[in-house]
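Quick one, tokens below. Sequence please?
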């Protein structure tokens, strides 16, 4: 009972923040039939299921055009909120994250893990070949850094699926920032972890290549590295299982697909952030129940 009420609290908070963002952007007042809580529930249903807009419109008693209109407005608002919902950890946060990873895995100085994830899309009408990946699907790449709490700390979305993870990273703003302003993003004894697809640097640590001749220390390093790096894979899994629209985006417009992915990451981070208040909220709701 308390858990369900806590989830409702999160949705109410999300409702308030998105409404505030729409109001700031002067996108809230339109001629379309408007009920904001109803609109948000429709959009969350769209993102959480692979259902068509037509079936969702029937479920909510709207036309597909109205559902699509509200869907686009909500994901645009969430993308506008991305600068506050997807943030690189501060110096103090990095110290806390580093100690947490060290305590869990024994790997020192880890702030987060870097990896790429393919989001399958419908075959683009214009220049589809770059989006054809090694698994014979069309996709765009979601590159992310996730911390040990499964929060996405940096995302870079939109590169075609045929591009290698290492090249995607070299094209990303994060790579340039780590090269040009390393002290602003990582302290001297801190780094992020990547798999064997990435190039080894002092800021991105990769595992030893296993050719069958690794010594005991190298094997131990790889085991601890894999344990610490699993956070980004678990974050991708949580993201896709919660927002199942990301299993396949039926969108001809690449920019529109990118906005959908960023919106899902923003909601993921929002709920993870609010989840840190779950203990407090559960205590509060328990007190309310006692009064009732």
């Amino acid at each position: 009972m308390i858990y369900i009420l806590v989830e409702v609290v999160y949705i109410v908070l999300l409702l308030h923040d998105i409404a505030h963002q729409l109001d700031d952007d002067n996108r809230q007042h339109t001629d379309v039939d408007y009920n904001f809580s109803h609109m948000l529930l429709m959009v969350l249903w769209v993102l959480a299921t692979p259902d068509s807009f037509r079936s969702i419109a029937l479920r909510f008693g709207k036309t597909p055009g109205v559902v699509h209109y509200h869907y686009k407005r909500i994901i645009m608002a969430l993308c506008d909120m991305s600068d506050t919902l997807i943030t690189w950890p501060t110096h103090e946060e990095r110290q806390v994250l580093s100690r947490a990873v060290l305590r869990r895995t024994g790997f020192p100085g880890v702030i987060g893990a870097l990896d790429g994830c393919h989001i399958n899309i419908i075959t683009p009408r214009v220049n589809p070949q770059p989006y054809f990946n090694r698994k014979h699907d069309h996709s765009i790449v979601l590159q992310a850094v996730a911390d040990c709490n499964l929060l996405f700390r940096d995302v870079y979305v939109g590169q075609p699926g045929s591009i290698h993870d290492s090249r995607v990273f070299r094209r990303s703003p994060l790579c340039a920032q780590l090269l040009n302003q390393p002290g602003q993003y990582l302290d001297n004894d801190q780094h992020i972890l990547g798999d064997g697809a990435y190039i080894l640097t002092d800021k991105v640590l990769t595992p030893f290549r296993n050719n069958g001749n690794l010594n005991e220390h190298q094997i131990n390093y790889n085991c601890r590295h894999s344990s610490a790096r699993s956070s980004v894979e678990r974050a991708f899994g949580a993201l896709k299982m919660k927002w199942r629209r990301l299993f396949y985006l039926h969108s001809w417009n690449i920019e529109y697909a990118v906005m959908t992915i960023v919106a899902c990451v923003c909601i993921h981070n929002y709920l993870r952030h609010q989840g840190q208040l779950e203990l407090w909220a559960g205590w509060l709701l328990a007190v309310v129940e006692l009064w009732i």
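The mean pLDDT is 85. The two ends are 14 Å apart (CA to CA).
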